[in-house]
Hints:
One of its GO terms (molecular function) is oxidoreductase activity, acting on the aldehyde or oxo group of donors, NAD or NADP as acceptor. It is a single chain. α2 packs antiparallel against α4 (106-121). α12 links the parallel β16 and β17 (387-393). This protein has 2 domains: 7-255 and 454-475, Aldehyde Dehydrogenase, Chain A, domain 1; 259-443, Aldehyde Dehydrogenase, Chain A, domain 2 (3-Layer(aba) Sandwich), CATH 3.40.309. The chain contains 15 helices and 23 strands. It has helices at 46-63, 68-84, 86-97, 106-121, 157-170, 184-194, 215-221, 234-244, 269-281, 298-313, 333-349, 377-380, 396-404, 419-426, 461-466; strands spanning 10-11, 14-16, 19-21, 26-30, 37-42, 128-133, 136-144, 147-151, 174-178, 203-205, 227-231, 250-254, 259-263, 291-297, 351-354, 367-370, 387-393, 408-409, 411-415, 433-436, 451-452, 455-456, 469-475. It is globular and about 65 Å long. By secondary structure, it is α/β, with parallel strands linked by helices. It has a 7-stranded mixed β-sheet, with helices on both faces. Nicotinamide-adenine-dinucleotide (NAD) binds next to α7 and α8.
Amino acid sequence: xxxxxxxxxxxxxxxxxxxxxxAPKSFAVTDPATGEVVGHAPQGTAQDLDAAVAAARRxxxxxxxxxxxxxAAACNAIADKLEQHADEIATLITREQGKPLxxxxxxxxxxxxxxxTRYTAALSAPVEVLQDTPEGRVELHRRPLGVVxxxxxWNWPVMIAIWHIIPAVRSGNTVxxxxxxxxxxxxxxxxxxxxxxxxxGVVNVVTADETEDNLGAxxxxxxxxxxIVFTGxxxxxxxxxxxxxxxxxxxxxxxxxxxxxxxxxxxDPKAIAEGLFWSAFINMGQTCAALKRLYVHDDVxxxxxxxxxxxxxxxxxxxxxxEGSVMGPIANQMQFDKVKALAESGAAKGRVLTxxxxxxxxxxxxxxxxxxxxxxPLVDEEQFGPVLPIIRYTDLDAVIxxxxxxxxxxxxxxxSSDIEAAKRIAARLECGTVWINKHGMIQPNAPxxxxxxxxxxxxxxxxxxxxxxxxxxxxA
Length: 476
Ligand code: NAD
């Protein structure tokens, strides 16, 4: 087999019905740190998508009837494969996405993928008996849906694919995956490995550069796909929702976020600086539930700004394959341009504490901009990059209103030494998860999802698992 970590221009294959499928055309995937071509992904077409859906439909007929034990064992076998190939895939993620191997980078992503796979392997949806009396017995069953379409973004390509695929497969569905054209290679490789342990057709993958063939759009309207699990931006999620209507697809939409963090006056600024840093800048800030607006009480405002800026100045940034880097480049030009424009708008009004201007290529230094407020683009819009606005506040009610004054509602955080006080504030925040003294630390047993324009449905835990099923009640 080709060593895909070293093959600078290797062409990867789609996997349809258990077999590698090439396409007459392919598109290049480049390393954001160097601009080099990492590999080529197949330019799949509507016919490839139809073939993948047909294979998944055929596989569903038998996969949906397998035992719980068999499906749990298959998921654990996938976890073993991921573990055995963790270094190889981490390198591929770093090369196509840019995040460093170290820090909360691609090795961490692979660790998460394995942990989520194992946790989900142990989930199930047992029959619930709602009534068992002389008058009758009522049972609630959860049935798999059929073919699930998974559409993923470029920021955590493998972890998010795993979040979609494993609960689908574990609950008896079959899958067609479509990764982002910016980062398709690691997903193609992961699904190739899955196919070493799964029956043909259970998990398929198609890729395309969507300027030519928008397979995501075709998936959301496809009559033989029963559910779309989508992670990406809110505008694309809205398109998915519109085109899913005709076939009444089930939807889980994990969309954009603009998470607020509220720092209360009782914190120790130096003690929280590291936590604030990783909350905002994990994966160069390209994380849905990263801290994206930081509201700090006047009493500790200067001290928090200073402690955070001190921390930022000591964080090594460089090419992700360099073992010394913990921060890397922005993942692609489109995102770089967006971040740069928002940073410039912030710098024109606020006080730049660190960074501020673009570096070489797609590198952008970690940028803190103080003295901004709601209404400023860097506060109101999702930056999805290494630039954090800091906002001063004095009144608690006003800051809660400011945090909620945004169409998004993914996550939020409160930073305080008084946990009960923080929980009372949490109850007033309009978002799916509130962290206290941390931010963005999702875990496989805690349902995660957005409110407002951040989407609907949840992933993870029992509630996330159930979203891959329809309820069927049997009354006897
Ligand atoms: P995006 O919406 O541009 O793309 C996401 C996926 O949708 C890609 O695979 C893309 O090819 C596909 N796509 C494009 N057009 C489509 C269409 N018409 N129909 C269906 N699919 C289509 O998002 P992105 O830039 O890859 O990711 C960044 C965004 O994702 C950010 O807003 C971020 O907050 C969000 N995100 C959310 C979560 C979450 O869990 N809530 C997690 C990660 C990222």
